[in-house]
Amino acid sequence: MPLEIRPSQALRLWRQVHLDLVRDDEADLSARQTAILLTVYLELPPHTVRGLAQQLGVTKPVITRALDTLGKLGLLTRKRDEADRRNVVIQRTVAGALAVERLADLVTEHAKEIGGS
Amino acid sequence: MPLEIRPSQALRLWRQVHLDLVRDDEADLSARQTAILLTVYLELPPHTVRGLAQQLGVTKPVITRALDTLGKLGLLTRKRDEADRRNVVIQRTVAGALAVERLADLVTEHAKEIGGS
DNA sequence: GGATAATGATACGGGTCCGTAACGATCGGG
DNA sequence: CCCGATCGTTACGGACCCGTATCATTATCC
Description:
The first copy, chain A, is mostly helical. Chain A is built from five helices and two strands, in the order H-H-H-H-E-E-H.
């Protein structure tokens, strides 16, 4: 059964969550960083720079820089792949999992507040 | 009747929409810019720099710069308030309305794809 | 009218990100 | 082995954004 949501509800939900993200701003991630973070935490490993670049439709340096920032924030980690030392495996962290969970709560909470019309 | 959405659904929805936003990137707005844009298009006018700064919990220069960028993109316009010429009224544009509508469609489309579990 | 307050814009130094191009490291096939 | 291909990273010049402090303009109030 699909999730039913009307355009006006979608916009109000989008606005409320973004308002919270801006106000809390413990993170203040860009759209690209958010897409990377959620991909790593929702899709099955392993995740590589090249794979993420293909999924997002951006160049590899973009991924490298985003990983620098997300790593600095402690939201994920990089590890060399010992099987093929050219590859780098992106791994999840506890802090990252908490941040993702917090985002999920934020969305579901505001969804509840959004009335019918 | 509230909008029912589970955390796992929320995350998948959030990821899919962000992936689309990154891939299309006709805009590539930051979280702050998105919050401003949606506030202007969802809340009743008039909108001022000071009012937006208060709602977002940020300083006025942040709003001014965001309005510069959003104005350059044609998503909204500034106009001096003739009643009180200190104020600047932020106005909607056709392009902005289309962008907001497109975002709404993006969210509702992906919501449909998101299954029950 | 002059002092005061309020509004939005600007200056500044610092940081981050962009896209293109090049780079070092590593693997694999002949 | 060695040469080409494939990783991820870094260099570069340019653009954008940040927060603080300051500015010019306009309104208000005595």
